[in-house]
Amino acid sequence: MTSTFDDLLEANKTYAQTHEGGFDGIAQAGVLMVTCMDSRIDPLAMIGLKPGDAKILRNPGGRVTDQVLVAIVLGVSLLKVERVLVVEHTRCAMASSTEADVKAKIGDKSGTDASWMTIGVIEDQESTVRADVNRVRSHPLVPASVEVGGFIYDVDSGLMQPVD
């Protein structure tokens, strides 16, 4: 029987032939990055790290949601995370439309009303990054010793710019 995942499973077999397992799950570089799910972003490579060095949390827009906060707390408490990067990016679909427009597109594509769903579009990226950084810094289970920074990654140049 042919599966719609056969190409990916075959690629996984090739990957597994040279895979060096044995990581302990600790963020070896003490880094955790929250970023967007956009496929133009290669989180480890863009900051010079390799598998095992960092925890990577991805979602639409790279937002610090309640579940992301849980992951950050686990990272700083149990996985040796000492630095947290909140990274949004240029030309992000979450920052280029209104909430109503995105819901309408989803509804049109699915044939089901999506007006009840919270999408979380980003109206002002710099303000959103600042708010999300503050959300991490002010969390009672994230020690003040944890460095938290906000950035906007340019998908065209590959450069990250700090957001003050």
Automatic annotation (TrEMBL):
Catalytic activity: hydrogencarbonate + H(+) = CO2 + H2O
InterPro entries to which the protein is assigned, alphabetical: Carbonic_anhydrase, Carbonic_anhydrase_sf
Cofactor: Zn(2+)
Keyword DNA repair found: no
EC number assigned by the record: 4.2.1.1
Residues the record lists as binding Zn(2+): C36, D38, H89, C92
Keyword Zinc in record: yes
One family name in Pfam for this protein: Pro_CA
SUPFAM superfamilies: beta-carbonic anhydrase, cab
PANTHER family in alphabetical order: CARBON DISULFIDE HYDROLASE, CARBONIC ANHYDRASE
Name recorded for this polypeptide: carbonic anhydrase
Organism: Aeromicrobium flavum
